[in-house]
């Protein structure tokens, strides 16, 4: 059984001089590293971490922005036999200390900007980890001051990739495929984030599966705009490392940056989320955007869906580019995939189950749903998480025995209860209706927010919309919508309501529509619904 | 005017950081967006403040790392916009 490090090692030997990672900076500058250098640097970091006592069974955090150093840190940690977790640089001090105590991480590797968030960190009973500042460049005087300040109250050591010795003995640990490779901390819309444990075996399977679907080879240049803390972003990284493709890191979701990066670096594949493509639609009149996408072989729409009209527009904007739509969760990786050849026929669906996985719908009576009957989406096979870190109760709620199998079956399957409501049509295509706990019961009707949001998004002035229920003593839940208009959009609440009145029955028209300039978002671009709703709870 | 521009922009940036609980005044050449200190999505909100403060118009194609990654780059951008007004 191969693991991802075997794939990476093979690639580093086969294509030593090929560029592994390009990190795009402002004013056309870029940092680069070859596969041989990346292998060497991560060996050095692994040796350092091993000296610090890191070993199989440990978890090590990477609290850095996406960069060559971040990727080096991930590979270095894996080489010690430990598992890694990535934190976005915008994670708060509280999230950093919470995830460290949950995983009992002895070390968190940080970069310059992460230190800004850690200025007030103190050594205490709960903070038993130490920080390792890892950088291939000398920090500026601005950051040197911050490093000195933290060093007064907290253990912080420094390891630089800038002056490595000429030769070294690589650390090689015996890794068992069932060992945990990484932890994905879910955004946690309610309560604390959960740590989703992914095994080496599954990480390898999901990587190979994605390489197959997208046809990734060493000739590809993948544009990385998603965080490594998010399953889609992490997986994209490993598909590059397993094939010898070039990963081009861009820390900007601004459409003009994406377009110019595609042109400059000859990008062939992009994994994206709906928020990115929605904002791209605003740039459609730009010649650069249209030109740029002529070069791109494929894009993905993952981690949520777009409204029907937006899907149509994306389809016609990116003619000649293969569009894959995928659906999944951190706990399942990818459950459904809609192939480019099916896009125009079934664009409202999230496709059919990914190879190696099975998806089924269980209705409210606990039986397998008929075609087009709605129920909870269950996932099994590849992609299934090992469990939640330090949360037996949470694991047993999410990861259960297959309810359709006999209790006496000799090999009972584990399935993930996704908490999503969906249906499968007569052709086997999966449709996601919404979160089970976000369904709105209003005036005796059951309404899924997506049904309403999809209609709001049909208005030409609307860029994004979110719909939710707010407790109401008369009708159960009142329907509210927050709407962000696009750059040139002008619209009033009553205009939008009358627009909707042609498309939706009266009980589905939001009682309040609020226009906003932007939404609070998770690092993977999802709107933080709990934060939006909180404003309206009295 | 040059000093005013930099002061105003530095003030905006420190306010954004303060909202996240970070007390720091980045030097003019410190990366803001690429480093992850400021989310590229929140540049949109920041741009509205710039437009109001300097009475300039910022388009989608203006919104890039080249124009917004550091306080220095933002100042240069605002000056260019004011010059063609």
How would you describe the overall organization of this protein?
The complex is a heterodimer of chains A (538) and B (85). Chain A has 538 residues and is an alpha/beta fold. Chain A has 17 helices and 27 strands. In chain A, the strands form 5 sheets. In chain A, strands 2-1-11-10-12-13-14-15-16 form a 9-stranded mixed sheet, sandwiched between helices. An 8-stranded mixed sheet of chain A has the order 7-6-5-3-4-8-9-19, with helices on both faces. Helix content of chain B is 55%, strand content 0%. In chain B, helix 1 (2-19) runs antiparallel to helix 2. The longest helix of chain B is centred in the N-terminal third of the chain and has 18 residues, at 2-19. The interface between A and B is large, with 41 and 36 residues.
What are the salient characteristics of this protein?
heterodimer, A: 538 residues, alpha/beta, Rossmann fold, GMP Synthetase, Chain A, domain 3, 3 domains, nine-stranded mixed beta sheet, eight-stranded mixed beta sheet, 17 helices, 27% strand, B: 85 residues, mainly alpha, 55% helix, globular
Main sheet attributes: strand count, strand direction, barrel closure of chain B: none
Neighbour order of strands in the largest sheet of chain A = 2-1-11-10-12-13-14-15-16
State the name of the first-level CATH class of the largest domain in chain A: Alpha Beta
Residue share in helix of chain A:
25-40%
Distance between the termini of chain A: 55 Å
Q: Care to count the β-strands of chain B?
A: 0
Return Rg of chain B in Å: 12 Å
Structural topology:
The complex is a heterodimer of chains A (538) and B (85).
Chain A: H1 4-14, E1 19-24, E2 30-34, H2 35-51, E3 59-63, H3 68-79, E4 83-87, H4 93-103, E5 107-110, H5 112-117, E6 130-135, H6 141-153, E7 156-160, E8 180-185, E9 195-199, H7 200-214, E10 221-224, H8 231-243, E11 246-249, H9 255-265, E12 269-272, H10 274-280, H11 287-295, E13 298-301, H12 308-317, E14 322-329, E15 333-338, H13 343-346, E16 352-353, E17 357-362, E18 375-381, E19 387-388, H14 392-398, E20 399-401, E21 414-424, E22 430-435, E23 440-442, E24 445-447, H15 449-456, E25 462-472, E26 476-485, H16 493-501, E27 512-516, H17 529-534
Parallel strand pairs in A: 1-11, 3-4, 3-5, 4-8, 5-6, 6-7, 10-11, 10-12, 12-13, 13-14, 26-27
Antiparallel strand pairs in A: 1-2, 8-9, 9-19, 14-15, 15-16, 17-18, 18-21, 20-21, 21-22, 23-24, 25-26
Helix pairs in contact in A: 1-2, 1-8, 2-3, 7-8, 9-11
Chain B: H1 2-19, H2 43-54, H3 65-68, H4 71-83
